[in-house]
Amino acid sequence: MNLKRLLTLLCVAFITLTAAAEVPDNDKIFAAINDSNSEYYYPNLMMRYKSGEPLTDEQYHHLYYGYAYQAGYRPLNDNPGMTKVQNIMARIAIDTPSVVDIDQLIAACTEAMEYDPFSPKLLNIMAYAYGTAGDSAREKVYADHLAAILRTIAASGTGEKEKEPMHIIFFSHGVDFIAAKGWNQRKGKIISRTVEFIPFEAPKNKLKGYFFDYSRIYWNKPDDYTFKRERTWQFNNLKPREYK
Q1: pTM of whole model > 0.70?
Q2: Per residue of the chain (244 residues), what is the pLDDT tens digit?
Q3: Which of 22, 58, 172, 192 would you call most buried, defined as having the most Cβ atoms within 10 angstroms of its Cβ?
Q4: Judging by DSSP bridges, how do beta strands 195-204 and 233-234 pair with one another?
């Protein structure tokens, strides 16, 4: 799959953003994902997600926001796999990568997704990698996951007002959400204890940017944590981009 095909996937993902608005109800999500008799029981949902089984938007909703209650959710920790992904993407020829490059990229993405299984950037790259390898079935799985996670975030709030933010579980997901639209953004601004505003490089239909609720990220913040982070990815050319 070449770069043109990859961008088509992103466009399709946003064409299908039709889920009804659903602000995450933390108590209901927690109860549902811990009920072994529920269709949202988390171990079963995650197993289905990883195997590529079809899921409903409600199931994706519980998967995404339910991840904040899992032992592996450490959004402030370093992700070694992501560093490997960035290094590989920085050196390969996007349109003509070698088989070895693609194999290494899939392995690095798989490692990174153990930390961040719903990363739009990683889902996007996995669709690219499997498509390039000629595995159309796995390409579709990751493209469908990408579209569903973007729908889930979009359905959590309008993002147009501080009191109507979209809810994210990693800082990078807000940047990825905007980048997946093909829009450029400027450095995000923390405007409250729970909300970040990410301005667009240029207004879109008079909208200057999106508000994102990041509160889940600090639920388990280590006492000695110092706030700093890279602001992360440029989807269109698949190259890492730092915001300072």
Answers
A1: yes
A2: 344 444 445 545 554 544 556 899 999 999 999 999 999 999 999 999 999 999 999 999 999 999 999 999 999 999 999 999 999 999 999 999 999 999 999 999 999 999 999 999 999 999 999 999 999 999 999 999 999 999 999 999 999 999 999 999 999 999 999 999 999 999 999 999 999 999 999 999 899 999 999 999 988 665 555 555 444 444 444 443 332 2
A3: 172
A4: unpaired
CA distance 44 to 59: 11
Spatial neighbors of 139 by CB under 8 A, at least 6 apart, are 1, 127, 130, 131
Please tell me the total number of residues recorded for the chain in this structure. 244
Q: Please give the single-letter amino acid code of residue 161.
A: K
Q: Report how far residue 210's alpha carbon sits from residue 213's, in angstroms, rounded to the nearest whole number.
A: 10
One-letter amino acid at 215 equals: S
Encoding tokens for residue 237? 């050319």
In whole angstroms, what is the distance from residue 122 CA to residue 103 CA? 15
The residues near 17 (Cβ < 8 Å, ≥ 6 apart) are 150, 151, 154, 155
Coarse DSSP helix, strand, coil percentages of the chain, rounded to the nearest 5 percent: 50, 10, 40
- Between CA 234 and CA 68 the distance in angstroms is 25
Q: Which two tokens stand for residue 108?
A: 């690095």
* Distance, CA of 10 to CA of 90 (rounded, Å): 20
* Six token digits for residue 238: 């698949």
Other beta carbons within 10 angstroms of residue 182's beta carbon come to 12
